[in-house]
Amino acid sequence: MLNQDQMEAGKIYYDTNEVAAMVGCEPSALRFWEKKFPQLNPKRDSRNRRRYTERDIEIVRKIMHQKEHQGRTIKGAREQMRRKEESQLLVQRLLRVRKFLVDIKEAL
User: Fold this and answer.
1) Residues 59 and 37: beta-carbon distance below 8 Å
2) What's the rounded mean pLDDT across residues 33-57?
3) Alpha-carbon dihedral of residues 41, 46, 47, 53, nearest 10 degrees?
4) 43 phi and psi, to 5 degrees?
5) What would the DSSP string read from start to end of 32-90?
6) CA pair distance 86, 75, nearest whole angstrom
7) Is the alpha carbon torsion for 29, 34, 36, 37 positive or negative?
8) CB within 8 A of 24, min separation 6: which ones?
9) d(Cα 78, Cα 38) in Å, to the nearest integer?
10) Which of 43, 44, 56, 89 has the greatest count of CB atoms below 10 A from its CB?
């Protein structure tokens, strides 16, 4: 999450330069990562400028953490993030199956 100092009241979207300043990277890195990570997909406004949400900023922070603190390459970071997404989807599916089975058990 963003610090309160960094968030403007009611602000939903941030431009490339704002995000780069928040996370401590160059704007060109954000544009590069957008091409390499399918998870990072900021919206575009009517003038085709990138508009990042808090979710996008969290993805950028995860990418930076993978690279800086875990020493992963772009390819390794992308693979790790893909695996994590797959495991989260699997957990959600298993929770739905569990709920279904509990509902059946209670109906018996």
Assistant:
1) yes
2) 92
3) -30
4) -70, 160
5) HHHHH-TT---EE-TT--EEB-HHHHHHHHHHHHHHHTS---HHHHHHHHHHHHHHHHH
6) 17
7) positive
8) 64
9) 9
10) 56
In the three-class reduction of DSSP (H, G, I as helix; E, B as strand; rest coil), residue 4 is classed as coil
For residue 1, pLDDT beyond 50: no
Place of tokens 């059946």: 104
Give DSSP secondary structure letters for 18-32.
Answer: HHHHHHTS-HHHHHH
Identify which of 50, 63, 51 has the alpha carbon closest to the alpha carbon of residue 23.
63
**Residue at token pair 């993805």:** 59
User: What's the CA gap between 76 and 67, in Å, rounded?
Assistant: 9
Nearest Cα to 64, choosing from 53, 72, 52, 75?
A: 72
Q: What is the mean pLDDT of residues 66-86?
A: 89
Say how far apart CA 66 and CA 72 lie, in whole Å.
Answer: 6
Q: Model-level pTM?
A: 0.70
